[in-house]
């Protein structure tokens, strides 16, 4: 650990680019936005740093808190689905044969190669009234109807008189589905990394000693891999909370999330200070969540945060 | 926001002619640059335009006529355009804001004054467009295209002609089959218009009434569309939608069952403008380009291709009755009399609209 003291030049040469990056592309822009959150609008395009708290007070009005609360709910639902679906997927990959494993991982990572906005548009083509999901459903309905007619139950109209497409798009469920679709890999990858590291003999021991599969999962596997779950939850929940184009494209008339309100402040509302205050409100909440995570993790496992 | 959302191209078959426009534009911007320039300005121009909003060969023709290479970038809506110029010109020579945003940009001091002596083709403009209330004397803007907002609908699914805003704003007749536009200022303005107020009202109680009307109507509305109401209409997702006339016209060309109407209470009249932002790297070329677009032949080619109403009287003379007598492109004088342009009412009023819209969406 003392090596860098012996070669200070090498150390500085290596640490300069990342430090530069951190300062100019992270700290400086973030500080600017933070400054905006304490500024006031002047005229049409101007802002002045007056250290006002008005933007935060406005952000704490009930209407915005309600929207925030709703966004938290949607993000939490999406994260929960990612977790419940992600565990078995991560398990399957970790326990797959060495030959199959890279291919399965590739399948999880592959969607990243296509822009998320484009994938969201693709979801519209799947979910809309005359979309692929409804086409498939219609085929199934027709087949079922044919069977019923063939066996002479056609008159009872057990599955309705005619095919009615499902309303899959333009509601909150579509938004949650869109978020799950977008961020699912962020849940699977840290889970996979943790399950992969898991010593299989623990599970064998548990099973040998008479515990069932459920018991083994909840008493052995989960406690040993839940750091991965925690990392997954954090990196899915945070971007999900700030989602804006997913609710915009897939949502209905009451799917507005806090990200949409923030986006409007920077665009049509032309109120950057207020938009900045709303953004930082989210940021503070995120810091709070991360601090909580560190605290919980520290208490449980001596502070080791492995993702 | 009356052109296509960028994702539209992805949603629709790529073989459409509008995709070819994009491909042509890309081709133009990648073409080799002429060597050995004698002019004071390098023969380049950065044009910031809406998607599918220029003639098929306009940029290539302009290059042939002047040697100036046009590189076109696209923006999706006025708010995006405005946000990009807030902190200074990112390097564009000609931009195309809509009248209310042009007004906002003039007041913010973002636009350069035009040198009318370099735009002799201004004489081609119809008398009504020689001047503008939002830009007295046309000091900063030249008109590009104009049109209305109204209702696009599917004839076989809608009872007669939906001649009133009531059909989408205060009725459950088309419950679950209505799309409104997800643009707060404009949509609340339409609701105000329906209630008998001006669509530019700055009175808090009138904006409140418009807000309440929309909130009451929400259960009947399927979606606040991101300026893709025409796609929703075409794909059968909704049967009636609030949209800009040009968007509906484009899908009407593909589906005979679709139509467009400006409701009797009146509506919004818009005008897109050609402007030179301050700090433009090639102001001289920008004047040449604006002058070229106002040329009769060039203007006719653009209007013929994009099917929007041109303010260019000389260009109209070159086009046939299919274009000139189309009521969806050129509303009657009587319709125009019922409409009003959306104007910029200042930041305080803008905020009233934005907050009202947030409440409508949250309700």
TrEMBL record, chain A:
Domain ABC transmembrane type-1: where? Answer: 68-293
Q: How does it sit in the membrane?
A: Multi-pass membrane protein
Q: Which PROSITE patterns match?
A: ABC_TM1 (PS50928)
* CDD domains for this protein: TM_PBP2 (cd06261)
Question: Gene3D superfamilies under this entry?
Answer: MetI-like
Asked if the record carries the keyword Cell membrane, the reply is yes
Q: Name one Pfam family in it.
A: BPD_transp_1
Q: Which InterPro entries match?
A: MetI-like (IPR000515), MetI-like_sf (IPR035906)
List UniProt keywords, sorted A-Z: Cell membrane, Membrane, Transmembrane, Transmembrane helix, Transport
Transmembrane portions of the chain: 9-34, 72-96, 103-127, 173-195, 216-246, 272-292
Localization, UniProt: Cell membrane
BP GO annotations: transmembrane transport
Cellular component per GO? Answer: plasma membrane
Stated family: Belongs to the binding-protein-dependent transport system permease family. CysTW subfamily.
Quote the protein name from its UniProt record.
Spermidine/putrescine transport system permease protein
Which organism is the protein's source? Tistlia consotensis USBA 355
Lineage, please?
A: Bacteria, Pseudomonadati, Pseudomonadota, Alphaproteobacteria, Rhodospirillales
From TrEMBL, chain B:
Q: Which residues bind spermidine?
A: 342
Concerning CDD domains, the annotation shows: PBP2_PotD_PotF_like
Q: Which GO cellular component does the record give, naming just one?
A: periplasmic space
The entry's keywords: Periplasm, Signal, Transport
From its record, what is one biological process in GO terms? polyamine transport
Which stretch is the leader sequence? Answer: none
Localization per Swiss-Prot or TrEMBL: Periplasm
Tell me the GO molecular function terms. Answer: polyamine binding
PANTHER family on file: SPERMIDINE/PUTRESCINE-BINDING PERIPLASMIC PROTEIN (PTHR30222), SPERMIDINE_PUTRESCINE-BINDING PERIPLASMIC PROTEIN (PTHR30222:SF17)
What is its biological role?
Required for the activity of the bacterial periplasmic transport system of putrescine.
The record's similarity note reads: Belongs to the bacterial solute-binding protein PotD/PotF family.
Protein name as annotated: Putrescine-binding periplasmic protein
Organism for this UniProt entry: Tistlia consotensis USBA 355
